Amino acid sequence: MNDVLVAEDLRKTYGDTAALAGVSLSVEEGEVFALIGPNGAGKTTLVRALTGTTDPDSGSVSVFGTDPQSADPQRLALLPQAFDPPERLTARELVEYYAGLYDEARDPEAVLAEVGMADADDTWYENLSGGQRRRACVGTALVNDPDLLFLDEPTTGIDPAGRRSLWALIEELADRGTTVFLTTHYMEEAERLADRVALLADGEVAASGSPSALVAEHGGRTRIVVETDADAGAVADAVAGTDFEVEASDGQLVVAGVEPEDIGDVVAALNDRGVAYESLAWKQPTLEDAFLRVTGKSVAGGAGISVETDREGEPAFAGGER
Ligand code: ADP
Q1: Same structural domain for residues 139 and 276?
Q2: Same domain, yes or no, for 250 and 176?
Q3: What would the pLDDT profile of 90-125 be if each residue is shown by its tens digit?
Q4: Strands across the sheet with 58-63, in order?
Q5: How many angstroms separate the alpha carbon of residue 184 from the centre of ligand 1?
Q6: How does pLDDT run across 266-298, given as a tens digit for each residue?
Q7: Which is deepest, 45, 46, 232, 313, by most CB within 10 Å?
Q8: What is the Cα Rg of the chain in Å?
């Protein structure tokens, strides 16, 4: 596979803030690559550096084998996070306007149909739903039939139905062979869409790989999450006989390493010791867990467990070793 995008040791500082603190990554032709990070991680700065809209202080970017400013604009497209078209343009006028900016543009009708806007093409932007607005905006980025499409937080602020329709659209683009680089703080989005993800925190890529590989390597083990007023020690004592570890976490307790066939043993142990609990749920590790364990940070909007961590980013354990 060809790398269509390569970044090496990108650094960018604003005052005392290192927005990019040495980012290296590569994106292969045809893949969907997701950059995950909380607000302030450096995602937008990285997208801007990769697309040549900001100059890094140091490091290099290669797009299609050349620097971003020299890359063929017909082959590239960027939908910035803060893209705010005039409200009194219709979806059709918006797409037609952007089509007019290129020497070779696709038929706006075909683009509107592709982004699912054929039925609302004469509606003013201000009267479109959040999902329709964003799809119309994606349409503006598709008028030049790009080989490499950057989408900066494409579904932020959109309702769940709109988000799912955007996901289906991105999947169609990927199926057609478009290379997609997207940023998100929605773990579900990255897990569903991305062939590979990079976990970005404080301007650094903390880990990268396929979602499943990252979860397997960093996500921790299957677990039972117990909502209880009992303290970690009481729960650890209760399950001591079952040989599971108990992780102290924020408002919850986690019995780690519990496989499905072990659930009954843990429940029985808690009941035997009279440990009362509000709820008890068995969970598999997620990408959010991987992010938390690798970076020591939570990603806003994720549904992960907030485990207290020590300096090395390892979960703080209460209770015995397995
Ligand atoms: P993200 O997109 O992940 O939310 P950003 O790339 O927007 O992160 O920002 C990364 C860090 O750099 C933040 O601390 C942000 O405040 C800072 N930053 C970004 N752009 C500027 C700028 N133009 N001037 C000053 N600080 C900036």
Answers
A1: no
A2: no
A3: 999 999 999 999 989 999 999 999 999 988 889 999
A4: 17-28, 3-14, 58-63
A5: 15
A6: 888 888 888 888 889 999 999 999 999 999 888
A7: 46
A8: 23
107, with CB counted inside 10 A (0-12, 13-18, 19+), is exposed
Cα of 9 from ligand 1 centre, angstroms: 18
Closest residue by CA, ligand 1 atom 17: 19
Token pair listed for 157? 């602020």
Structure tokens at 317: 């354990």
227 & 191 share domain: no
Q: Which atom of ligand 1 is nearest to the CA of 39?
A: 4
CATH number at residue 270: 3.30.70.120
Please check whether residues 179 and 259 belong to one and the same domain.
Answer: no
Give me the CATH number covering residue 213.
3.40.50.300
CB–CB of 41/200 below 8 Å? yes
Residue 228 lies in a domain: yes
Domain enclosing residue 47, as ranges: 3-217
Asked if residue 149 is part of any domain, the answer here is yes
What separation in Å is there between the alpha carbon of 24 and the centre of ligand 1? 18
Q: pTM score, two decimals? A: 0.85
Interval between CA 246 and ligand 1 midpoint (Å): 38
Residue 137 lies in a domain: yes
Pocket perturbation via mutation, ligand 1, pick of 12, 17, 200 by most ligand atoms within 8 A of CB: 17
In this structure, what token pair is assigned to residue 186?
């929605």
Counting from 1 in the atom list of ligand 1, the atom nearest the Cα of 152 is 2
CA 313 / ligand 1 centre spacing (Å) = 24
Total domains, the chain: 2
